[in-house]
Amino acid sequence: MCSLALALLLASADATAILKKAQVAVLGEQAAYTLEMVVTREGKAPRKVEMKGFKKGDDLGLVRYIAPPKERGTAYLRNGDSNWLYLPNAGKVVRVGPKQSFAGGDFSNGDIFRLSLTRDYEAKLEGEEPMDGAPAFRLELKAKDRSVAYDRIVYWVRSDGTYFPVRSEYYTLSGKLLKVLALSEVRSLGGHPRPTRLSMENRVEEGSRTEIRFLSIEDGVALDERLFAPAGLERGE
């Protein structure tokens, strides 16, 4: 193998390893958590929702509203490549797409129930640069096919050994910047430090942003796969 090809192969391998570590730096492979989400729209009062969530690997996820009372029980479920929304007031379970808005905010369903970035994107290590006052790897992620929400992601990961993701920029196929995600407020939850605040700024709709704050996280919790069955949504399981 020529030296250039070998260098490219090693760079790709390094980028993939960094990305894998960054993916589990906020939530582990299996976790139960609570979060607060605040949606801000220009000219409107902020909308606040509290949720309980569960994650098992890359393919199983469930988030259920616990507040405010009028929305309690509303749930989003992902099982494999399928996503569902349960609306208790209507008594309906409907399919939703990964590119659709999650809970009326600036995160998409795919952002919340993200398929593995290492599975969906080719990663390339572009170098190291300061980001929010700390050294960070800069990764360029290119979609492997058109089924994912974004054609290209620029992804910064702290290079101090923590592998905390710091910032993501999401682009369309034409190169238009859609959204910017900032991760901050590193504090101990579930026994070890991690970023606990995720702020998504909408660059298409001026004045729109959504903030998620993790209130509690329990890693490695035992989760029955029946929890992630669509049939359980109406029963509140």
Give a description of the structure.
With 237 residues, this protein is mainly beta. The chain has one domain: Clam (outer membrane lipoprotein receptor (LolB), chain A), CATH 2.50.20.10. The protein is 12% helix and 49% strand. The protein is built from 3 helices and 13 strands; from the N terminus they run H-E-E-E-E-E-E-H-H-E-E-E-E-E-E-E. The chain has helices at 3-23, 109-112, 117-120, and strands at residues 30-40, 47-56, 60-67, 75-79, 82-87, 92-96, 121-131, 134-143, 152-158, 165-171, 177-189, 192-202, 209-219.
CATH class call: Mainly Beta
Class based on secondary structure composition and strand pairing: mainly beta
CATH superfamily: Lipoprotein localisation LolA/LolB/LppX
N-C termini distance: 54 Å
The residue fraction in helices comes out at 10-25%
Largest sheet: 13 strands, antiparallel
Sketch the topology as an H/E string, one letter per element: HEEEEEEHHEEEEEEE
Number of helices in the DSSP assignment:
3
Please give the domain count.
Answer: 1
Radius of gyration: 18 Å
